[in-house]
């Protein structure tokens, strides 16, 4: 029996609620706590609560009433706007709110779209995305399942999303169908581009016999997917190819986990990793997965080769962007790294396994600057220092204690990691006075900064309603 890996988890676009993907920056969390405290203070001065009479209301209470009135006016004004928007506009607005983590607002637009057209595929898919973001997995399965029933042979996205919600062979079948549709979409796009070029040349010589373009002959699902990509561009085709490669990585992961007891599981796993690399040799995730596969086979030298190849495909550019030396227009300013936070964490684990500590530090420091409230990041920084011996124990202790502090703010769901963290902290002992001084936080400054941000938000709200 071939044993699958337990080190890394790849390509899971939708992670369980409370995990890394949906994690919000610290400022939003603390801002929310500040608002709660403010609300409590405001409630104590509400005349209906007996705090003071209407004639003696303080400035905060008056501002509170103004805010409530402004919010009521905005809410009242928003209702008829739903009716005036087309279904496509409703879904576009819903996606905007999803991207901004305003899920309650997004839900209103999704519900209105589904109310109008309950079997409209884009509405079902957008609603599924919202359900996934809010942890409503049953709702996501329902929406995706309905979309698959209505349009079984078109649209790869719903299959790839459903695959991540299913297990075992059901997940495998969804991935395989998604890959099949992706391949067909690329082939049709290439054929359309070739025929379009031929039609253009023919039209220049003799004129066209009819007004139908080859792209119009594509199935609706394929046309919709092409519309999502830059028209007639190498970048659009490259994005679809990357999706196939990443989906192949996900199938390989299945053969390392859910399907590890199947016959030929190891061979199937290797075949899909090779397909991922052959399909897109520029996909760092494919090489990263091969590195993990080699670790399972207890081939650390081969694993080191593949993980360094993976790192070379993204880390240098990421560092250029971070340092401000990258050329303008050479990267996506919103998505500056092709790999997700969890995948880069997995890369760091693999680097530690093959004792490439310096590269692991670069990866982890980048992650900590991107989001400093992930326990795993600080734990791994401590662990790689711990593994390097006595000279690095002070640094290890500092990182482990920081990981514990982060766990209080943003608890990790990995109980084994937390247990190991506690054992290591007990072994290394408490922080020194010097370390405590470095870790000390000026709470007054933090509160002042949060108050300033809250005041700015309040002013913006008042300006929006004026």
Automatic annotation (TrEMBL):
<dbReference type="GO" id="GO:0016020">
    <property type="term" value="C:membrane"/>
</dbReference>
<dbReference type="Pfam" id="PF14559">
    <property type="entry name" value="TPR_19"/>
</dbReference>
<feature type="region of interest" description="Disordered">
    <location>
        <begin position="192"/>
        <end position="217"/>
    </location>
</feature>
<dbReference type="InterPro" id="IPR019734">
    <property type="entry name" value="TPR_rpt"/>
</dbReference>
<protein>
    <submittedName>
        <fullName>Putative UPF0661 TPR repeat-containing protein C16D10.01c-like</fullName>
    </submittedName>
</protein>
<feature type="region of interest" description="Disordered">
    <location>
        <begin position="36"/>
        <end position="58"/>
    </location>
</feature>
<feature type="region of interest" description="Disordered">
    <location>
        <begin position="428"/>
        <end position="466"/>
    </location>
</feature>
<dbReference type="GO" id="GO:0035091">
    <property type="term" value="F:phosphatidylinositol binding"/>
</dbReference>
<feature type="compositionally biased region" description="Acidic residues">
    <location>
        <begin position="432"/>
        <end position="466"/>
    </location>
</feature>
<dbReference type="InterPro" id="IPR011990">
    <property type="entry name" value="TPR-like_helical_dom_sf"/>
</dbReference>
<dbReference type="GO" id="GO:0048264">
    <property type="term" value="P:determination of ventral identity"/>
</dbReference>
